[in-house]
């Protein structure tokens, strides 16, 4: 079990406030995962203050990391507690936070070297990130090795 931190002000906006209506927020977070085609009935999502707890089984590490990011990149979320098993325990996700003024090219350059860095970063973050226009300060992206 690990906990990952996120910027409270950045990300997707829910219709309810996490701390005011945690049960409704958990339902909306689960719906967000379904919109991104990242979940199935095996995942449980709960909200404890500004922390989102996700538990269940994932077929692959890639899906697990995308789930963690989709839940963390939500306005009001400061942490995601990872209780998802992926059958690949021991792999530590590599997450990068977009800094103020950074472009997709900057972040890709920080993550990877070479001419395909942007394509590689986009591929690693689909469907949540589909192009340069989707990047903003505070967004957390995954950069697998």
Detail the topology: elements first, then pairings:
Elements: E1 2-5, H1 22-35, E2 44-48, E3 51-57, H2 61-72, E4 79-85, E5 95-97, H3 104-111, H4 117-124, E6 140-142
How would you describe this protein?
- The chain is an alpha+beta fold and 145 residues long.
- It folds into two domains: 2-85, Histidine-containing Protein, Chain: A, CATH 3.30.1340.30; 95-142.
- The protein is 29% helix and 20% strand.
- It is built from four helices and six strands.
- Strands 1-4-3-2 form a four-stranded mixed β-sheet.
- Helix 3 (104-111) crosses helix 4 (117-124).
- The longest helix has 14 residues, at 22-35.
- It starts with a strand and ends with a strand.
- The model has no long low-confidence stretch (mean pLDDT 89).
- Residues 15-88 form the BON domain.
- This is BON domain-containing protein.
- It holds the Pfam family BON.
- It comes from Streptomyces kunmingensis.
């Amino acid at each position: 079990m690990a906990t990952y931190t996120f910027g409270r002000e950045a990300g997707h906006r829910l219709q309810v406030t996490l701390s005011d209506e945690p049960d409704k927020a958990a339902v909306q977070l689960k719906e967000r995962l379904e919109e991104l085609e990242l979940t199935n009935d095996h995942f449980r999502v709960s909200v404890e203050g500004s922390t989102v707890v996700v538990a269940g089984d994932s077929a692959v590490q890639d899906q697990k990391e995308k789930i963690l990011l989709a839940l963390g990149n939500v306005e009001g979320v400061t942490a995601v507690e990872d209780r998802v098993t992926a059958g690949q325990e021991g792999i530590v996700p590599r997450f990068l936070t977009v800094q103020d003024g950074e472009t997709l090219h900057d972040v890709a350059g920080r993550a990877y070297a070479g001419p395909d860095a942007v394509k590689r970063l986009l591929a690693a973050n689909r469907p949540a990130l589909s192009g340069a226009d989707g990047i903003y300060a505070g967004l957390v992206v995954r950069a697998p090795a």
